[in-house]
């Protein structure tokens, strides 16, 4: 019985490693598809990501942009400083609280990013789905959707468990 449990856990571990390796490989392939664009622009991947986030919602605060990029405040501040130095973005004091500023794309960059980035970001997916049969496209969509849903369940459970531990009696909560 115990050996069966170990075998199942071993198989799940192998499958988890295979999924993680595949996701990482896809990420690398997708990033490589942008290499020539990035090289031509002279921008780094994080700078391109910042511009893309601002194209989705211009006028973000540094805190909001950091959260969306999942990078530290100081890292994003440096990215924004370099983009501002090149004239790609500007900072405007927040009208509600002048201690903070809002980050806006320049007009030229706004037009380019809104027009070009979504199609370039989707291009590898469009071409891959074009190569797939109808059945493969259904399998891809179902598989990716199922994996995303399951990961969301796991992460929300972990966050709930972590928050419950943080406020448990005897653990420093008052």
Write the CATH fold name of the largest domain.
Answer: Arc Repressor Mutant, subunit A
**Protein structure class:** mainly alpha
Which architecture of the largest domain per CATH? Orthogonal Bundle
Q: Domain count, please report it.
A: 2
Shape estimate: extended
Span of the ends, CA to CA: 45 Å
Mean pLDDT: 84
CATH homologous superfamily heading of the largest domain: Winged helix-like DNA-binding domain superfamily/Winged helix DNA-binding domain
Low-pLDDT runs: none
What is the helix tally?
Answer: 7
What is the helix/strand order? HHHEHHEEHH
Provide the β-strand percentage band: 5-15%
> Order of strands across the widest beta sheet?
1-3-2
Oligomer: single chain
What does this structure look like?
By secondary structure, the protein is mostly helical. It has two domains: 33-131, Arc Repressor Mutant, subunit A (Orthogonal Bundle); 132-169. It is 74% helix and 7% strand. The chain contains seven helices and three strands. It has helices at residues 2-32, 35-41, 45-56, 62-69, 73-85, 107-131, 134-166; strands at 60-61, 89-93, 101-105. The chain has a three-stranded antiparallel β-sheet. Strand 2 (89-93) and strand 3 (101-105) form a beta hairpin. Helix 4 packs across helix 5. The longest helix is centred in the last third of the chain and has 33 residues, at 134-166. The radius of gyration is 22 Å and the shape is extended.
């Amino acid at each position: 019985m115990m050996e069966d449990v170990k075998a199942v856990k071993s198989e799940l571990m192998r499958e988890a490693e295979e999924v993680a390796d595949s996701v990482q490989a896809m990420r690398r392939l997708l990033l490589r598809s942008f290499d020539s664009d990035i090289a031509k622009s002279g921008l780094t991947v994080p700078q391109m990501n910042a511009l893309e986030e601002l194209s989705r919602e211009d006028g973000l605060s540094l805190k909001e942009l950091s959260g969306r990029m999942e990078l530290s405040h100081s890292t994003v501040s440096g990215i924004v400083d370099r983009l501002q130095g090149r004239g790609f973005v500007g900072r405007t004091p927040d009208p509600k609280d002048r201690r903070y500023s809002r980050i806006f794309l320049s007009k030229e960059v706004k037009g380019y990013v809104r027009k070009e980035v979504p199609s370039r970001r989707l291009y590898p997916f469009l071409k891959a789905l074009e190569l797939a049969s109808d059945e493969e496209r259904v399998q891809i969509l179902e598989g990716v959707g199922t994996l995303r849903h399951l990961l969301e369940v796991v992460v929300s459970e972990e966050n709930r468990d972590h928050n419950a531990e943080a406020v448990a009696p005897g653990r420093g909560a008052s």
